């Protein structure tokens, strides 16, 4: 099975910008490029309003609350989009107080209109960021990363030095972004570390302006953060920590992630280590009950399709901690080479490398993938159950913020696994 549902660089760029509350994205595109992204942005920003074309008659929005577009037609591809760009910018500049990001959809970028000139002619250079060619085949994480750098270049952060850190590599494109931010921030606070900003995951432009005063950039999800980390380092000499064991998923990688940050800042992760130890005891008692009756989860097969910085710690944890066996592992486009190599080495050392590059493999009990693919595979009888770890989701209603990262995420994963297997 292939990742036909994977979001691409355009989706990454749109949601990278939409993760900043006081930024509005405008698409120079046909309506076909707009509706999916408008719907996802509405959901990811947790907006209360219900989109209804009969209740939202504003031009350019087509009944949705986010991502207005120029609704290009065949005439625009022949004669250009200048007039529509002027009209939509004139409409938006009086109805939106924050920054605007104007993105050419891939098809619109082939027309060749100079959108920078349109912005300049309207005197909106300070308020509007043009993205003329978003890219055509790269992955969504790369799109998020590039967009954040583009926005930071426009804002030109000028924050005074503070004894705080930035969390980078978080995005509203990711599953459970809100819950992950709360979990990671809590772990850091228990170690005496304060978060200054979370670019792309809820921080507004004022926070981003202050972000250049951070002591350190702590990377949560590397695929979403390499260019952003390098931007901060090259312009403000802010060092960054690339987590040696991957994203903080599972007890071991969480312990390693927080330890590296504490070591750099001269802090002690004593409280967090205590909580991890307590969570491991809680997990062990529940695992033992299932294991005593059925022998599970030891020996259960699993398949994963994810970025390498997530797949590496998850595979390692499931195999060493729960005794589960990987039967299929597929890394998504844009995976970080560092963790791809670490994963390959781990699999080779344990004679498991025959499962790499295939998905879902032979008879997986549990599949870790996006919710849409997982739901389809379960319905087809390919697996006993799935755990939704990436976008797009299955559509299940979720009210309480969740996460697969940190201590809470580790316990949630074990709970999900045990419930599927029992």
Question: Could you give the topology of this structure?
Answer:
Layout: H1 9-18, E1 23-28, H2 35-44, H3 74-79, H4 82-93, E2 99-104, H5 106-109, H6 115-121, E3 128-131, H7 140-155, E4 165-168, H8 177-189, E5 195-197, H9 205-210, E6 216-219, H10 226-236, E7 240-241, H11 251-265, H12 270-294, E8 301-306, H13 308-321, E9 325-331, H14 337-349, E10 366-370, H15 371-379, E11 385-390, H16 406-421
Parallel strand pairs: 1-2, 2-3, 4-5, 4-6, 6-7, 8-9, 8-10, 10-11
Helix pairs in contact: 1-7, 7-10, 8-16, 11-12, 12-16, 13-14
Give a brief description.
This protein has 422 residues and is an alpha/beta fold.
Explain this structure to me?
- This protein is of the alpha/beta class and 422 residues long.
- The chain folds into three domains: 9-138, Rossmann fold; 165-265, Rossmann fold (3-Layer(aba) Sandwich); 281-421, Rossmann fold, CATH 3.40.50.1980.
- Helices cover 44% and strands 13% of the residues.
- It has helices at 9-18, 35-44, 74-79, 82-93, 106-109, 115-121, 140-155, 177-189, 205-210, 226-236, 251-265, 270-294, 308-321, 337-349, 371-379, 406-421, and strands at residues 23-28, 99-104, 128-131, 165-168, 195-197, 216-219, 240-241, 301-306, 325-331, 366-370, 385-390.
- It has a four-stranded parallel sheet. Strands 9-8-10-11 form a four-stranded parallel sheet, with helices on both faces. A three-stranded parallel sheet has the order 1-2-3, sandwiched between helices.
- The chain is globular.
